[in-house]
Amino acid sequence: MSQIVDSCPVGAVAQRGWVENLLVPALRKAVAALPPAEGRVAGYHRGWCEADGSPSPGTAGGGGKSVRPRLAMLSSVAVGGTAADAVPAAVAVELVHDFTLLHDDVIDGDALRRYRPAAWSAFGTPAALLTGDALLVSALSVVSEVPRSGEGAVRELVHALLDLVRGQSDDVAFEAARQVSVAEYLAMAEGKTGALMGCACALGGVLAGADAEQVDGLRGFGRRLGVAFQCADDLLGIWGSSARSGKPVGADLAARKKSLPVVAALAEGGPASRRLRGLYGSSRPFREGDIALATRLVEEAGGRRAAEEEARRQVTMALRSLSRARPGAQVYGQLRDIAGDMIGRER
Length: 347
Ligand code: GRG
Known about the structure:
The protein is an all-alpha fold. It has a single domain (2-343), classed as Farnesyl Diphosphate Synthase (Orthogonal Bundle), CATH 1.10.600.10. 71% of the residues lie in helices and 1% in strands. The protein is built from 17 helices and 2 strands. The protein has helices spanning 2-7, 18-32, 36-45, 67-78, 87-108, 119-123, 125-144, 150-176, 182-207, 212-239, 242-245, 251-254, 260-268, 271-281, 290-300, 303-323, 329-343, and strands at residues 112-113, 116-117. A hairpin with a 2-residue loop joins strand 1 and strand 2. It starts with a helix and ends with a helix. The protein binds geranylgeranyl diphosphate. Geranylgeranyl diphosphate binds at residues 64-65, 67, 97, 100-101, 103-104, 114, 161, 164-165, 168, 192-193, 229-230, 233.
């Protein structure tokens, strides 16, 4: 992802180093303003320091891909703003994103994040939760301080947060549900992942002074892109590699998560689908070999192909929405490349 944005200059904005020169200093400032204990956990979570607080080697940009900040930045450019205009939006969405990851790892019990022990397993659950809370408050503070557009920006963020928590709540509820439809899955993914990406794009537009039609178009672009991103994430959760993604592979199946490939495979109804239903329906913990079996059954029942097709369909809808923001050809091309990259990614 960083390669794509950094290696395709759009005017002055997408030059190599936007992340290092504008985003990271602003993120570091926000993290430095947290209480020291939460600041240390946040710095660790971002890959800036080790658990003991000593600097991590070679991680100036942090452990994540900075997808949401880049969307905010390019959305600003798409409506005639600058990269600098988008910095508060970029910082806020990344702080929220970090908050959700910290809490999500606790909820799921995932012990690996961004190639190292998740914050809860390095610092304990209370520290991880409190750090997430602190990051959320910091994000709201950053957005509320933007001169002029502050009020509209806070509204945009709050709406996204409400959708996000609804999506996460549905995702958790799906684990115990006997049946989840593809439509229910897509609504969940739009909340859990689309809301924040939509917010990143919309905020980029708001801070650049875009009109309502443009902001709507950007928000819709980000939301659809977020669903596509979640489809890709689900595929990586089954067929990715831990070494590449820095996240546990197979954990979603072991936890009987209703990810899109599974939902689609369960809906298919053929022999592999019925066997998968038996495996997912039983309450006994997965044994050695069950993850490999479930992976095979999901593929045989067409779940992988269905999720790949859905991701492509979402990207097509995302680009249609982007046109409503009336972006110039160059930045449109760059956002289209990011969208394509999102569904073909390996991490
Ligand atoms: C908003 C009040 C409120 C609560 C949040 C915990 C929670 C409720 C939501 C969790 C949402 C979540 C974790 C969604 C997953 C989104 C996703 C695909 C994350 C992976 O994003 P990447 O790949 O991560 O961009 P990096 O590490 O690159 O930054």
